[in-house]
């Protein structure tokens, strides 16, 4: 790891200012950034910690929505969202291991947009809103491909606002080595219809499975998906699974998410 | 009442107190005044010709003290192969030089071609990156696939070896024609092609070395992660650096696991010693985890075609195998023994099979060198045998339990010489099979299968009946087989004047519990408490010349050396006691820590005898030397032959292909047991590693020789949730007939016996679920492979 300067602002304004410095990089839980820096694959000059800003922390219910501060850890979400949004809490409680969950944050995960991360599935599957230091971004507009988001240079995620669904469930099949989602499906049922988001499988990261959404909107039951087949086109191929295998998992995990909801 | 101490007691491990409280002292914990830091510069291409290395910029960087390249070491000796194998045509194997640092060519990703030494680690790392940028390597086509390597003579790992072949070995060549005849006329022949997957050892502690040079005396000291410090000293002194052996001390302090990978001498050890001499300061190097992946010797990596000829009732007539074994880019120290004499000689298993022929072609490729890894050759043999026997049983619709039983060598047949050259001394394979069926509750399987089916899971049961040759020795035999070293071991028992005891062993404990178990043996034999016994290992300046720990040999070889040294202590103690008690030596008996005169109440305690030996005021000095210290070297008459039966039950999720292990029953015959708790741990760990190989661990190179599984993000290690609670039994004991402890060794058993039990269970689950088109799935039997096999 190369040397760097470390700053820990206590307000969003200070954080935005610090991030404007040359080679500055936002640091939340550091679960991706720190290993990358240790391997010298990243060498920012300034690390701006976002974990000391009070309005970026905590879980808060506002009517039909659950708002989660971007610097809230997975462990905190697992604990504090359990009553209002158990599927989301369950997802958070299944990320990594206890060490990861006590440091990693929802904002860090979303800003990184790892194609196998769990949170993007919850955010897209819930049709959540990403609140940043500049604006509000709808989930459908936020995720823009592998490790790529709508965030602009210096823009910070402040919180994420989840509309609370009638029912929701998450099921992931773990990649055997990393235990990230080889394929994970998040299903959420709203009055307006059912949303299904798939992580781990897509070449471009998280995506909505529209055939599945239509079928479940018509009939919210795992069997409603039985007749569907998922095209392997556009799905990832790696050591751990072919596109055809992942296509199978899209359906199987969605069915399991429905059953778990 | 079970014993609470001495031989056979489940004493808690004394070493755990320091390991579990963070007080272990590993190589990287050693901090020396004036120390400097080395970083290796490693090839990022699998195969390339080094065109130029400009060291000037790196050498001028802050804190940099020295830069080394292959050029600096080109006149040193090569890292030798410890085992000479001859090809079928009688020609000796090809032995390309393995230099300290790559010179001329780089031959695998991770091949170190330069090293930088600086005041701090960060400075050395910065300069290493600069040096890499200032190096020009012309990339050559990578040789990765073994079959292609031997077929294409235009592309060579070593320019002087046209077909990339190290040797083409036949075992036993004289049997070949007969075996071929049997196959021609056999009532049934089963054929199976399989891969024994390459494994990366992943010891918890990465390799590390610290070199020191003492200019006042010209002495060197190497502190390093070694399973066998004297072997390291011999290799470095006599073969690589040309240092007199008595001017080099090798210290292996606490070592955090080896599994074979720390048997071998690696170039970094010579680099830190040479650098220490040049700089006059200690030089340290510790591998990063990513370096371990690309520089520790890997294991396994066989591609095998095996055939079984049998009667229609399953009676074995012959086995015939053809194997391509990967040695990687260079010969590691024992890499030529692993696919041959630790593999071919085990192809009889525990079975009376009259005809066997084994062919192994060992191939150079642009991959990390491959050498012995827990089990070493014997897991490969066992996997081939136990998989094809299961396949044959399916083809002929025979019971896999009864077919194995029918073919077992029976207790009345020992000693039994196999057609592949081993003489098994004792065993009772039917007994361990019965025990495994009992503790594995074979009778209750159908009920459990029905329960699984209700959940949509396919349940299967897999069997493996295995044997190994371990207690690696004896010298006379391994010498005939090509070993260039002896394989005895040694121990010194020093009774101190105050009566406590120091035992110096050639065996090295890097997880094996020697400090506890050897102390139990000494305590039992001398009638003293374990707390009075200290086990000293890992420092060539303190211990006798022993060969270290691997091949499940510590107890069966070095443990016996300890008992032989104790026998000498007791014999001398009797002479001293006879003098002190004014009795004839032959009237003195020793028991429970007392030397007594037979038929009287006259006695001296062990402590009194020890004191007298060091304060010899009343002592037979004219006929007996003072002091009480004895050394014994022990070279066994034969290998030991542990054996057992393993039964694994799995559930397969047919929707995802995921395999869950429900239960694992192990019935082993390890001969006599010194500490049951330690044996439990060895079996648990070995089976865990075997499950890792069977289900998870996949070493994958792409066609350019890039390691795709170079971190834990892609290389799947078994975790606690991947393994079941094991059922372990070792009550079926046929003590080894040729060592006085009657012990056989248990360190590798689990890793040898378990992989085929797992794979057999998966195939069984699929067949019982009606998926009979799946004949075999290569390891690791990952979810995607299972799903593809089901849907293929």
Please give a quick description of this structure:
Chain A is of the alpha+beta class and 261 residues long. Chain A is 31% helix and 23% strand. Chain A has 3 domains: 5-49, Uridine Diphospho-n-acetylenolpyruvylglucosamine Reductase, domain 2, CATH 3.30.43; 63-163, 2-Layer Sandwich (Uridine Diphospho-n-acetylenolpyruvylglucosamine Reductase, domain 3), CATH 3.30.465; 167-260, 2-Layer Sandwich (Enolase-like, domain 1).
Describe the 3D structure.
The complex is a heterodimer of chains A (261) and B (792). The mean pLDDT of chain A is 97. Helices cover 31% and strands 23% of the residues of chain A. Chain A folds into three domains: 5-49, Uridine Diphospho-n-acetylenolpyruvylglucosamine Reductase, domain 2 (2-Layer Sandwich); 63-163, 2-Layer Sandwich (Uridine Diphospho-n-acetylenolpyruvylglucosamine Reductase, domain 3); 167-260, CO dehydrogenase flavoprotein, C-terminal domain (Enolase-like, domain 1, 2-Layer Sandwich). Chain A is of the alpha+beta class. Chain B has 792 residues and is of the alpha+beta class. Chain B has three domains: 27-140 and 204-257 and 262-295, Aldehyde Oxidoreductase, domain 3; 302-473 and 638-791, Aldehyde Oxidoreductase, domain 4 (2-Layer Sandwich); 488-634, Aldehyde oxidase/xanthine dehydrogenase, molybdopterin binding domain (Aldehyde Oxidoreductase, domain 4). Chain B contains 19 helices and 28 strands. The longest helix of chain B is centred in the C-terminal third of the chain and has 27 residues, at 554-580. The model of chain B has no long low-confidence stretch (mean pLDDT 97). Chain A binds chain B through residues 2, 39-40, 173, 176-178, 182, 239-242, 244-245, 248-249, 252, and chain B through 122, 125, 129, 290, 655-658, 695-696, 698, 700, 708-709, 712-717, 782-784, 787-788, 791.
Explain the layout of strands and helices:
The complex is a heterodimer of chains A (261) and B (792).
Chain A: E1 5-7, H1 12-19, E2 24-27, H2 33-38, E3 46-49, E4 59-62, E5 65-69, H3 74-80, H4 86-93, H5 98-103, H6 106-112, H7 119-126, E6 129-132, E7 136-138, H8 139-142, E8 157-163, E9 167-174, E10 181-190, E11 193-199, E12 207-208, H9 210-218, H10 243-260
Parallel strand pairs in A: 1-3, 2-3
Antiparallel strand pairs in A: 4-5, 5-8, 6-7, 6-8, 9-10, 10-11, 11-12
Chain B: H1 15-20, E1 36-42, E2 48-53, H2 56-59, E3 64-69, E4 105-106, E5 112-118, H3 121-133, E6 135-139, H4 146-151, E7 165-171, H5 176-185, E8 188-196, E9 208-214, E10 219-224, H6 229-241, E11 248-251, H7 267-279, E12 283-286, H8 289-295, E13 302-310, E14 316-328, E15 355-364, H9 378-396, H10 400-407, E16 416-417, E17 423-424, H11 429-439, H12 445-454, E18 458-467, H13 475-480, E19 489-495, E20 501-505, H14 514-526, E21 533-537, H15 554-580, E22 588-591, E23 594-597, E24 603-605, H16 606-614, E25 629-634, E26 643-652, E27 659-669, H17 676-696, E28 726-729, H18 749-768, H19 783-791
Helix pairs in contact in B: 9-18, 14-15, 17-18
């Amino acid at each position: 790891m190369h040397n760097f300067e470390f700053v820990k602002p206590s307000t969003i304004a200070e954080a935005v200012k610090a991030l404007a410095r040359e080679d500055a990089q936002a640091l939340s839980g550091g679960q991706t950034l720190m290993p990358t820096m240790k391997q010298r694959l990243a060498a920012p000059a300034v690390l701006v910690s976002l974990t000391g800003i009070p309005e970026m922390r905590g879980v808060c219910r506002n009517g039909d929505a659950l708002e989660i501060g971007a610097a809230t850890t997975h462990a905190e979400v697992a604990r504090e969202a359990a009553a209002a949004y158990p599927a989301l809490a369950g997802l958070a409680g299944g990320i990594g291991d206890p060490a990861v969950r006590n440091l990693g944050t929802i904002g860090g995960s979303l800003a990184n947009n790892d194609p196998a991360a769990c949170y993007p599935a919850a955010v897209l599957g819930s049709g959540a809103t990403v609140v940043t230091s500049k604006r509000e971004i709808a989930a459908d507009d936020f995720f823009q491909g592998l490790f790529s988001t709508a965030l602009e240079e210096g823009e910070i995620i402040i919180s994420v606002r989840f509309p609370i669904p009638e029912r929701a469930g998450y099921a992931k099949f773990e990649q055997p080595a990393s235990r990230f989602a080889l394929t994970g499906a998040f299903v959420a049922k709203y009055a307006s219809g059912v949303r299904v988001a798939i992580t781990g499988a897509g070449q471009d990261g998280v995506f909505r499975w529209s055939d599945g959404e239509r079928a479940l909107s018509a009939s919210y039951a795992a069997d409603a998906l039985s007749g569907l087949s998922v095209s392997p086109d556009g799905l990832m191929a790696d050591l751990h699974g072919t596109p055809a295998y992942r296509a199978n998992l899209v359906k199987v995990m969605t069915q399991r998410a429905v059953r778990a909801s | 009442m079970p014993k609470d101490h001495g031989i056979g007691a489940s004493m808690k491990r004394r070493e755990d107190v320091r390991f579990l409280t963070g007080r272990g002292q590993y190589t990287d914990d050693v901090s020396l005044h004036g120390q400097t830091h080395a970083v290796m510069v490693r090839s990022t291409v699998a195969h390339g010709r080094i065109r130029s290395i400009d060291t000037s910029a790196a050498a001028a960087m802050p804190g940099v003290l020295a830069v080394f390249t292959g050029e600096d070491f080109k006149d040193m000796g090569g890292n030798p192969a410890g085992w000479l194998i001859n090809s079928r045509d009688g020609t000796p194997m090809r032995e390309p030089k393995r230099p300290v640092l790559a010179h001329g060519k780089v031959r695998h990703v991770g091949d170190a071609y330069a090293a930088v030494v600086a005041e701090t680690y960060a400075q050395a790392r910065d300069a290493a990156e600069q040096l890499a940028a200032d190096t020009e390597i012309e990339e050559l086509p990578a040789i990765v696939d073994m079959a292609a390597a031997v077929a294409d003579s235009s592309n060579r790992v070593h320019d002087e070896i046209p077909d990339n072949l190290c040797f083409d070995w036949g075992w036993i060549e004289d049997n070949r024609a007969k075996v071929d005849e049997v196959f021609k006329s056999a009532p049934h022949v089963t054929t199976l092609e399989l891969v024994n997957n390459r494994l990366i050892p992943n010891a918890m502690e990465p390799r590390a070395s610290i070199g020191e040079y003492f200019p006042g005396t010209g002495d060197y000291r190497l502190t390093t992660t070694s399973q066998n410090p004297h072997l390291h000293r011999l290799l470095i002194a006599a073969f690589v650096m040309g240092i007199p052996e008595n001017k080099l001390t090798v210290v292996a302090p606490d070592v955090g696991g080896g599994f074979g990978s720390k048997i071998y001498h690696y170039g970094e050890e010579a680099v830190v010693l040479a650098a220490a001499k040049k700089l006059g300061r200690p030089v340290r190097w510790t591998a990063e985890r990513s370096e371990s992946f690309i520089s520790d010797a890997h294991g396994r990596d066989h591609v095998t075609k095996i055939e079984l000829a049998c009667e229609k009732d399953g009676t074995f007539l012959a086995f015939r195998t053809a194997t391509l074994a990967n040695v990687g880019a260079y010969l590691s120290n024992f890499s030529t023994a692993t696919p041959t004499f630790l593999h071919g000689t085990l192809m009889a298993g525990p079975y009376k099979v009259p005809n066997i022929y084994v062919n192994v072609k060992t191939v150079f490729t642009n991959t990390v060198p491959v050498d012995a890894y827990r089990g070493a050759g014997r897991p490969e043999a066992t996997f081939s045998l136990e998989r094809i026997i299961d396949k044959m049983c399916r083809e002929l619709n025979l019971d896999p339990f009864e077919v194995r039983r029918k073919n077992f060598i029976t207790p009345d047949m020992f000693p039994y010489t196999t057609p592949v050259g081993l003489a098994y001394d004792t065993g009772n394979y039917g007994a361990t099979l019965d025990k495994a069926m009992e503790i594995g509750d074979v009778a209750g399987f159908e009920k459990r299968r029905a329960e699984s089916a209700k959940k949509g899971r396919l349940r299967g049961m897999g069997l493996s009946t295995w044997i190994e040759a371990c207690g690696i020795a004896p010298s006379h035999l391994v010498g005939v087989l090509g070993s260039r070293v002896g394989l005895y071991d040694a121990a010194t028992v020093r009774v101190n004047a105050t009566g406590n005891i120091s035992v110096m062993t050639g065996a090295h404990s890097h997880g094996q519990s020697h400090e506890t178990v050897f102390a139990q043996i000494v305590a039992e034999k001398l009638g003293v408490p374990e707390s009075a016994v200290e086990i000293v290992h890992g420092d060539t300046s303190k211990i006798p010349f022993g060969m270290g720990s691997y091949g499940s040999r510590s107890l069966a070889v070095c443990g016996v050396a300890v008992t032989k040294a104790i026998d000498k202590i007791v014999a001398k103690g009797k002479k001293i006691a006879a003098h002190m008690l004014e009795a004839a030596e032959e009237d003195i008996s020793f028991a429970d820590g007392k030397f007594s005169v037979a038929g009287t109440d006259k006695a001296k305690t062990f402590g009194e005898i020890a004191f007298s030996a060091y304060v010899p005021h009343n002592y037979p000095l004219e006929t007996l030397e003072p002091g009480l210290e004895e050394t014994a070297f022990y070279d066994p008459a034969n290998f030991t032959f542990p054996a057992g039966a393993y039964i694994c039950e799995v559930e397969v999720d047919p929707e995802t292909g995921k395999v869950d292990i429900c239960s694992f029953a192990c019935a082993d015959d390890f001969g006599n047991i010194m500490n049951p708790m330690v044996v439990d741990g060895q079996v648990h760990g070995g089976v865990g590693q075997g499950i890792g190989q069977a289900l998870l661990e996949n070493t994958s190179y792409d066609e350019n020789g890039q390691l795709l599984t170079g971190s834990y993000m892609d290389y799947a290690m078994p975790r606690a949730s991947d393994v079941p609670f094991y059922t372990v039994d070792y009550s079926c004991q046929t003590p080894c007939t040729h060592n006085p402890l009657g012990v056989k060794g248990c360190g590798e058993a689990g890793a040898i016996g378990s992989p085929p039990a797992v794979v057999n269970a998966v195939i069984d689950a699929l067949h019982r679920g009606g998926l009979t088109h799946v004949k075999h799935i290569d390891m690791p039997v990952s979810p995607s492979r299972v799903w593809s096999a089901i849907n293929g």
